Structures are given as structure tokens and as C-alpha cells.
Amino acid sequence: MDPLLDPVTGDYAGGATNTLANAVYLRLMTPLGGWWADATLGSRLHELSRSKDSSRIDLLACQYAEQALQPLQQDGRASRIQVSAQRQGPGRLLLSIEVAETGGHIRHFQHQVRIA
């Protein structure tokens, strides 16, 4: 069991978790190559904050999130990962992430992405 991270503040939430919540959060929030202990951990989602707000950004954000979460499938902690994007307004994108854990539980996560 790990201390649960609050996805809104990034601080410890005070509880504990035995799900993939922390793993998903860290992989999406950490810039790819930005963690000293594992250069493969992280995503390229931070690059979208400098990108022009166009229709192709939705697909790119989904691809970046799927790439970041792929190690969860490779190490056997997740059996399936699906990512979809919804526009929340100009310059804002909401990623809806569904992770099927190997134990059979399906977890849903949401992640906000800012676009220039």
C-alpha cells in the first residue's frame, strides 16, 4: 500500500491506495526523462502547453498518454488502457483514462491538459 497522491494538488491525500492511481498520476504529470531514477518514466503531455490549439492536438494528447502508461501493461499491472479526449473549452482538454488492472478491476481517471 502506498500513500495516496491527490491528483489536483499533487500532495499526499492522507489515505493509502493499493490501485494504480499513483502510477497513472506520476506517469502523466512527470515530463518524459524528468525523473532521475528512471529516464523512461513520464509523458510528453507538457509539450502541448506550447502547441497551437488545433484539432490534431486531441489525438496527439491521447497518444502521449497511452505511451506514458504503456509500461503498466508491459510489467503486467494493467491488462488494458484506453484514453479518450474531450474539449473543455479553448486551450483545455480533458483526458478520460480507463485502466483495467490485472485483478479485474477497472479504474477511471481524468487528467486536465492545457494547450496554448
Automatic annotation (TrEMBL):
<protein>
    <recommendedName>
        <fullName>Phage protein GP46</fullName>
    </recommendedName>
</protein>
<dbReference type="InterPro" id="IPR010877">
    <property type="entry name" value="Phage_Mu_Gp46"/>
</dbReference>
<dbReference type="Pfam" id="PF07409">
    <property type="entry name" value="GP46"/>
</dbReference>
